[in-house]
Amino acid sequence: MERDLSEKHPPEKQLSNVSDSSDNKENATSIATNLSANHHDQPETETCDQLVSPSLKAGVKGEESDNTSHEIEEVDREEKENDEKIEDIPPPEIHYTLENVSQDIDQFITTLSATPKDAKETTVEESKDEKISMEIPVFVEKFLDLVEEKVAKHELTEGKGKWGQNPEEDSSFLEAVNRISKLTSSLDKLRSDPNRAALISRNGGIQQRAMACLEDEFRFTLEDIKHNDQDPNTDAKGKQHEADRCVVPESESAVTDNFLGYSDDAVSKLNRIAKEMIEGGFESECCQVYMMIRGQAFDDCFVEIGFEKISIDEVQKMQWEALEREIPLWIKAVKEYASIYFVKELKLAEAIFSNYSSISSSLFSNLTRSVLIQLLNFAEAVAMTKRSAEKLFKFLDMYETLRDSLPAMGALFSEEYENELKAESTTARCRIGEAAICMFCDLENSIKSDTGKTPVPGGAVHPLTRYTMNYVKYAGEYIATLEQVFREHSKIERADSTSRPRYESESQNFNNDSDEENQSPFSNQLMRVMDLLDSNLEAKSKVYKDIALSCIFMMNNGRYIVQKIKGSTELRQMMGDPWCRKKSSELRNYHKNYQRETWSKLLGCLGHEGLQVNGKVIKPVLKERFKSFNMLFDEIHKTQSSWVVSDEQLQSELRVSITAVVIPAYRSFMGRFSQYLTPGRQTEKYIKYQADDLETYIDELFDGNPASGARKRP
């Protein structure tokens, strides 16, 4: 087989051999024809020959035979001389280039690859003729010389500018590397032939050097990312950052490139290089470079976002104030990676390794795995920190991020890795959810532990009420998430809530006609918190010695609670209309009790009973009534001006209700009995207030400003 290929070179010699052989055949034919013609051209001598003796005939035939042999020897001598002359002529020198030798190399590779390996191995052990068939054509060595020269040229050029200057040259280099790889694979079948060891070794060495060039270019191209100059990223000092490997966009729409900063030409070049490296048996080196560069790109994204790599131990040691600042950065990182970078990283991997889906999938999975493990480890570490109620809402933010972001990534991964990701993210989300439930349930403990006996000045809203209701109102913004958390993770609710059975039964009484949805685990837990708060406030109201002030305290706190619940559509819907009606009824009762305790005595001074005997007004009793009224009103004004009703609507309602009761009664009393007092000194002494004065002083009540007492207006 190799003999046939080698005989084709040089072609001039093959043509000469064919020509010489043809001439020799013509000469031999001519001699034979001449001899035959000489023999048949003498018919007249046949009769004479018969008369010649046999011995004479034999002599004649011998002479003819000698002449024929002599002629044949002459022809052979001429042929031999011609062959020697042809061998002495040197064949014309052939100029080899990659272009003209590539076709021969392709044909050689095809022929060599088509022959079974076993056949080549047995050929070496056979006869000399068979060994000659295994000879390698001269153009193979010439091809290696040319490729080695091209590789050496690439090795001399370092850094940027090695590729892209001449696209045709780049394509020629890749084609040469492709043939070297195929030749390596084909020559491997001759490895058992010791005579081919040098050739195989040289070919492998050239391939190694060529692949090293491709690997360097692959690395450089991956590192050379171009960014959108229209959206520069600046630091706090206003200086533009250097070209990072990863720029965090404000939203997905802000990312205009398809491949995370790589141009289409760069991706095309990376694709061709990756193809040649993989087909040449350098898949491992190609994948290692890709993993290293893209892994560093992900690390740069973390830095750009501001989220630091923090170990589980470091998270455990961090103060909550510092950890609280890290959580929003973590949330941003998860959302950016899930919605933007992972999607585009998959597109990049699939574009570069377009012919190798299993490789692109594996690279993408391995790259994202390290990022996701880091993000999930942070979440689990946060879940293991000391729990407190104020951490709840950051935990809920993390829970929502894990719930909403990670499942969307499932379509990016293979089924096996998707299941693994789902299991790991579910574990982290469950731990966050369980911690959130414990934190909200700890609100019960916060309420029960507040057993202070110190009354709030002026009957104002208690700090416990403010804290609890602000907490609950803020929770209302996460009500859907809290319902999901309690529904999916309520099995870990604390069993030490001794008040639960009582409050559960009360809650059910308030919501008998509520929808089934309002009976969710979170709804029941919220109801328990509200009932426990009411009980705590009622106990605190008993600290006030003045019953009227106690009623003001309960009105203030009750009104604050109702307003917070009604201010949130979600909370109001969850608590239900029966609960709201019950709280409003309680507020009306406290209002009535306040009026009875405060103003009933004052109105008693304006009663008609005991002022007349036999139809005549008893002046001393009348004077005492005015005196008592003035004294009581002064005391009420002085005391209740320092009381606090911060809710303007409740404050207005109280003042209006007081005015509606006191002013008409006072006007009536004045109109009927003031005439019995002597005008002048007695009138000024006993009639201290006019009706308009009383209205003015009533409007000064519940301002929280202590007064020295009401005085008559000039």
Automatic annotation (TrEMBL):
One of its GO terms (biological process) is protein transport. One of its GO terms (molecular function) is phosphatidylinositol-4,5-bisphosphate binding. Residues 1-93, 227-246, 493-520 are annotated as: Disordered. Residues 1-12, 60-83, 493-505 have a biased composition (Basic and acidic residues). The keyword Ribonucleoprotein does not apply. InterPro entries: Cullin_repeat-like_dom_sf, Exo70, Exo70_C. Residues 14-37 have a biased composition (Polar residues). Keywords: Exocytosis, Protein transport, Transport. Pfam families: Exo70_C, Exo70_N. GO terms for cellular component: exocyst. Residues 330-700 form the Exocyst complex subunit Exo70 C-terminal domain. It comes from the Eukaryota. Belongs to the EXO70 family. Component of the exocyst complex. This is Exocyst subunit Exo70 family protein.
